[in-house]
Automatic annotation (TrEMBL):
SUPFAM superfamilies: Ferritin-like. This is COQ7 protein. GO terms for molecular function: 3-demethoxyubiquinol 3-hydroxylase activity; metal ion binding. GO terms for biological process: determination of adult lifespan; regulation of gene expression; regulation of reactive oxygen species metabolic process; ubiquinone biosynthetic process. InterPro entries: Ferritin-like_SF, Ubq_synth_Coq7. It comes from the Eukaryota.
Amino acid sequence: PGAGAALRPCSSRVAQDGVNKAVIDRIIRVDHAGEYGANRIYAGQMAVLGRSSVGPVIQQMWNQEKSHLKKFNELMVAYRVRPTVLLPFWNIAGFVLGAGSALLGKKGAMACTVAVEESISEHYNNQIRTLIEEDPEKYKELLQVIKQFRDEEQEHHDIGLEHDAEATPAYSVLKTAIQLGCKAAIFLSERI
């Protein structure tokens, strides 16, 4: 460019030819909200158990969630998807759930992890089916991201089981309550 000419920055926007915008918006919005909420859950657990023997395990899972959130932040910009208006609520609710479950001890925190990650893995599987039905080639990149994250969420679920989640008092009640909350959060975040 000549002197004084402004450089136009390159866009990180994805070409959206033939993309089902409504489906993509819903998927990216809810997954961003979910990863945001997961980060807040692990932040709450670390606030209570960070210096305990299970702290490094929680930190490892949290680090993966941080990379998931970073990727969905990028996808929101690339696909021009607005975040859910419920993020301020998920900020508080996620931290309270994480800290509250951690106050029950290591087993309580792991029970929360199992409940949440089982719900999220199921949710990601539903999204994978939707995108494959739409057009697996067109949504190849997004499918790869969701499959990778689903596998990592399943690993977190399994880590929770390995760390005695099922030995938590009233485990099935706690798990059911958390999963109902997850389903409500998914439903609302897809739409609002």
